[in-house]
């Protein structure tokens, strides 16, 4: 396995964690979040600082998850107060708040970012294995949640909060839970990214990346763990495999997103279900 | 005087945001869709302005061309992207809108280059007027004047003309309006047309102000416009105008106080989040009983 | 008998109108109470106050002796209050069975942590199927809730209310929009629910039906309780007749 392959697999693993965790928030629980990159970034920066300070891999990864979820729960609280479309705008804003803040802070590296982050000690291949293990665990967690009563309650909250209330479901608590879990995973992915690159700048965590993550969720099928995971793999590989796609990445991604929503709003997962059922509806 | 300086900048930015945000608030008021692709409309207007201006030598012609053609683009977005998706929850067309924006920005980059296009003969930028001790350039004046004219025009339109009154009725009470025989579809197209024309005007003026039109020209302004329509309240044109000016001023003065913590663009979103926490229904929205 | 639902001097004001003014109601366990009143009397507001979607300016709401003023709808449901809506709100994306199973699982969904560690649904599925059979929806389990005709959707509302093991059910115009046969069937179901020991509060416009099934009638007008007692006596009350004058419904119900 070449260094290039290791690199690609690492990125795929990270994107899978990000997309599947976003799906928990936006797919399972129906809270549209266009700010996932900010939680990813928060985790990356926290992990970087902790690693530089302590040199402990587990501590750094944990800090990443904690940072992600701290910011995430803050955003989650706004979801309790405002309507869903206002929430979307707020999550867009989180991206700008995060990058705007980071770029101004010298202790966070400002415009230059943080470089020279100590390695994890596992080497590139070891990192890749670690990332893939976490990715597999994320998928497993997502599938489990989907099957549990939490997933059941999430889908009620997603569809109609007031109707869910008459079933005894406290929508606010569940929204916070969705944000909490989803953003913790995003923060963890941030930590993994930090060890992968050993150099981070705010550019990697901008609104456009949040959009790309949402594209993976939409294309894979909002609410479907496997669909989203496959979409994440596919959309990460596509620019690598096809040079044209790499140069015109946003054009292609944007185009696919629009096409999918227009033609098959349920994404790949819905298409697969339709094919499996064999009906034309 | 530094503070007056800031006020002038703040107000001219505010006017720009207002021109941009009107289209957004109209669409949101009618369809409950966050028309994020509006940024692409803005950018298209800017590109048409600069290209026609450079080709013909007349900036005015550029602006007119932009105002004439972008409504078609805006209406097409409605027809192709939103209309077929109206039966879904509003998140769905919004995500499509985001996809379109990303697509268009890249398309502009591919077609016209990452560095953008400059105006070859932008005389207005360098005509500086001295108004009461303040140095303002002609473009800033144009922005403010245009905004005033536009809003007066809109006001007259929606209160004096039949079409305008029908339009206002539909925007505030869609279901009742249709029972009065008003064609909701036509009103929607009109909204997209007017909103797009205004965004194109704003785009052209911003291009003149920076003397540059690049692929990310719509970027930040449009996201602030989103914050503005939330602050300004559901589909309220007046609220949008007020919120735009207020935001322009908050940004200007805000950089003094928190400019070391956050860059200018983030200030808009801080204001938004703080406001939403205090008043979840926006500045002029009504809380459901 | 203890009071299962109590409103103590409840008042609320909206946009210049006193929607409810000093309302005092006490409903004991096992009662079957009809709540009536002309349009604008405050019935809807009262329902919202009991449900928890509106906070009163003054006064308390008590469920089984416990003060629940200011608590959320969901927590009131978990304390034994069930609601059916006038404008039905099933979870349309789910099947009929899933709607009732989710309701039946109210203990499991009490908080997200508990929901996370619970996966088993068999018991709830069995209970839900039984309830569906009881309300006459046996056979529709697999259908999407959004695809049902109105009469069946209203029965689904009742099924969901039953599934949360309520002490008291507040029915908001359960017969509205139904034809005579469906309305009779629905009234019968509500009667059966009561017969099993559940306290029923029925808000209805259909005076005839309410008169027939209720043991006690409470009349609201202009945000106040103007009569409260046995149906025959309440209907003959002059205040009540005045409140309905012009609609002719009171006179009609007498015959």
Spell out the blueprint of helices and strands.
The complex is a heterotrimer of chains A (281), B (289) and C (255).
Chain A: H1 3-28, H2 36-54, H3 57-81, H4 84-104, H5 123-147, H6 149-159, H7 161-165, H8 171-197, H9 207-220, H10 225-241, H11 243-247, H12 249-263, H13 267-277
Chain B: H1 2-31, H2 38-56, H3 59-82, H4 91-112, E1 117-118, E2 128-131, E3 134-137, H5 138-160, H6 162-172, H7 174-179, H8 184-210, E4 212-213, H9 219-232, H10 237-258, H11 264-278
Antiparallel strand pairs in B: 1-4, 2-3
Chain C: E1 3-14, E2 17-28, E3 32-36, H1 43-51, E4 58-63, E5 66-67, H2 73-78, E6 81-84, H3 96-104, H4 112-117, H5 122-134, H6 150-163, E7 168-172, H7 180-195, E8 199-203, H8 207-213, E9 216-221, E10 224-229, H9 231-236, H10 238-244, H11 249-254
Parallel strand pairs in C: 3-8, 3-9, 6-7, 7-8
Antiparallel strand pairs in C: 1-2, 1-4, 4-5, 9-10
Strand % of chain C is 15-25%
Low-confidence stretches of chain B: none
CATH class of chain C: Alpha Beta
Helices of chain C, by number, come to: 11
Q: Rg of chain B to the nearest angstrom? A: 19 Å
Helix content of chain B: over 70%
Element-level helix/strand string of chain C: EEEHEEHEHHHHEHEHEEHHH
Strand order of the largest sheet of chain C: 6-7-8-3-9-10
Describe this structure in words.
The complex is a heterotrimer of chains A (281), B (289) and C (255). Chain A is mostly helical. Chain A has one domain. Helices cover 79% and strands 0% of the residues of chain A. The model of chain A has no long low-confidence stretch (mean pLDDT 89). Chain B has a two-stranded antiparallel ribbon with strand order 1-4. Helix content of chain B is 74%, strand content 4%. The mean pLDDT of chain B is 82. In chain B, a hairpin with a 2-residue loop joins strand 2 and strand 3. In chain B, helix 1 packs parallel to helix 5, helix 9 crosses helix 10 and helix 9 packs parallel to helix 11. With 289 residues, chain B is mainly alpha-helical. Chain B has a domain of 199 residues. Chain B starts with a helix and ends in an 11-residue tail after the last helix. Chain C has 255 residues and is α/β, with parallel strands linked by helices. Chain C has one domain: Rossmann fold (3-Layer(aba) Sandwich), CATH 3.40.50.300. Chain C is 39% helix and 25% strand. Chain C contains eleven helices and ten strands. Chain C has a six-stranded mixed β-sheet, with helices on both faces. A four-stranded antiparallel β-sheet of chain C has the order 2-1-4-5, covered by helices on one side. Chain C is globular and about 55 Å long. The C terminus of chain C is likely disordered.
């Amino acid at each position: 396995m070449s260094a290039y392959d290791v690199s690609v697999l690492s990125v795929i693993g990270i994107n899978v964690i990000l997309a599947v965790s976003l799906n928990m928030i936006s797919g399972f629980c129906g809270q549209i979040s266009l700010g996932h990159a900010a939680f990813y970034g928060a985790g990356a920066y926290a992990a970087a600082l902790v690693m530089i300070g302590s040199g402990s891999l587990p501590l750094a990864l944990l800090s990443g998850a904690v940072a992600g979820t701290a910011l995430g729960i803050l955003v989650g609280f706004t979801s309790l107060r405002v309507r869903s479309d206002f929430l979307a705008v707020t999550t867009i804003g989180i991206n700008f708040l995060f990058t705007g803040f980071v770029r101004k802070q010298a202790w966070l590296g400002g415009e230059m970012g943080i470089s020279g982050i100590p390695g994890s000690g596992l080497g590139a291949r070891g990192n890749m294995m670690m990332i893939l293990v976490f990715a597999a665990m994320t998928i497993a967690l997502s599938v489990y949640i989907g099957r549990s009563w939490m997933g059941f309650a999430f889908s009620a909250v997603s569809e109609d909060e007031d109707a869910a209330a008459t079933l005894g479901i406290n929508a606010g608590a569940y929204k916070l839970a969705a944000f909490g879990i989803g953003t913790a995973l995003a923060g963890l992915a941030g930590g993994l990214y930090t060890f992968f690159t050993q150099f981070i700048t705010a550019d990697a965590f901008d609104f456009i990346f949040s959009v790309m993550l949402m594209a993976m969720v939409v294309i894979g099928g909002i609410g479907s763990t496997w669909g989203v995971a496959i979409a994440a793999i596919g959309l990460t590989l596509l620019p690598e495999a096809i040079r044209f796609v790499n140069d015109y990445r946003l054009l292609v991604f944007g185009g696919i997103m629009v096409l999918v929503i227009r033609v098959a709003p349920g994404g790949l997962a819905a298409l697969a279900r339709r094919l499996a059922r064999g009906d034309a509806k | 005087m530094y503070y007056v300086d800031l006020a002038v900048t703040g107000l001219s930015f505010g006017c720009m945001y207002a021109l941009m945000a009107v289209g957004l608030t109209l669409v949101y008021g009618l369809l409950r869709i966050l028309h994020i692709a509006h940024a692409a409309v803005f950018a298209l207007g800017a590109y048409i302005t600069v290209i026609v201006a450079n080709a013909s030598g007349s900036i005015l012609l550029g602006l007119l061309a932009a105002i004439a053609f972008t409504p078609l683009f805006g209406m097409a977005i409605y027809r192709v992207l939103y209309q077929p998706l109206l039966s879904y929850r509003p998140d769905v067309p919004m995500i499509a809108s985001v996809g379109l924006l990303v697509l268009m920005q890249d398309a502009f980059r591919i077609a016209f280059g990452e560095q953008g296009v400059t105006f070859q003969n932008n005389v207005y930028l360098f005509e500086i007027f001295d108004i009461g001790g303040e140095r303002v350039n002609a473009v800033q004046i144009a922005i403010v004047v245009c905004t005033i004219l536009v809003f007066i025009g809109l006001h007259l339109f929606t209160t004096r003309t039949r079409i305008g009154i029908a339009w206002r009725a539909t925007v505030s009470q869609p279901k009742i309006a249709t029972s009065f025989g008003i064609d909701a579809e036509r009103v929607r197209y009109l909204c997209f047309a007017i909103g797009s024309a205004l965004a194109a005007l704003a785009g052209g003026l911003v291009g003149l102000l920076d003397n540059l039109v690049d692929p990310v020209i719509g970027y930040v302004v449009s996201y602030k416009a989103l914050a503005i329509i939330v602050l300004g309240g559901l589909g309220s044109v007046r609220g949008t105008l007020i919120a735009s000016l207020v935001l322009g001023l908050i940004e200007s003065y805000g950089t003094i106080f928190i400019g070391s913590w956050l860059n200018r663009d983030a200030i808009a979103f801080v204001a938004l989040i703080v406001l939403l926490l205090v008043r979840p229904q926006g500045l002029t929205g009504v809380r459901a009983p | 008998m203890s009071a299962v639902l109590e409103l103590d001097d409840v008042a609320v004001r909206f946009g210049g109108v006193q929607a409810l003014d000093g309302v005092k109601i006490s409903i004991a366990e096992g009662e079957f109470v009809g709540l009536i009143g002309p349009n604008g009397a405050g019935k809807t507001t009262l329902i919202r106050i009991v449900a928890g979607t509106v906070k009163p300016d003054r006064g308390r709401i008590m469920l089984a002796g416990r003060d629940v003023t200011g608590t959320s709808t969901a927590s009131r449901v978990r304390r034994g209050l069930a609601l059916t809506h006038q404008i039905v709100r099933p979870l349309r994306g789910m099947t009929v069975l899933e709607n009732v199973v989710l309701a039946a699982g109210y203990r499991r969904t009490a908080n997200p942590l508990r929901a996370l560690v619970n996966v088993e649904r068999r018991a709830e599925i069995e209970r839900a199927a039984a309830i569906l059979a009881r309300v006459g929806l046996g056979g529709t389990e697999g259908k999407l809730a959004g695809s049902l005709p109105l009469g069946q959707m209203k029965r689904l509302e009742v099924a969901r209310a039953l599934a949360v093991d309520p002490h008291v059910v507040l029915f908001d115009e359960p017969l509205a929009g139904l034809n005579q046969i469906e309305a009779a069937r629905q009234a019968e179901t509500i009667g059966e629910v009561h017969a099993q020991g559940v306290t029923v509060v029925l808000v209805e416009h259909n005076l005839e039906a309410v008169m027939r099934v209720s043991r006690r009638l409470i009349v609201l007008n202009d945000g106040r309780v103007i009569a409260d007692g046995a149906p025959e006596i309440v209907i003959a009350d002059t205040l009540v007749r005045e409140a309905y004058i012009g609609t002719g419904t009171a006179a009609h119900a007498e015959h």
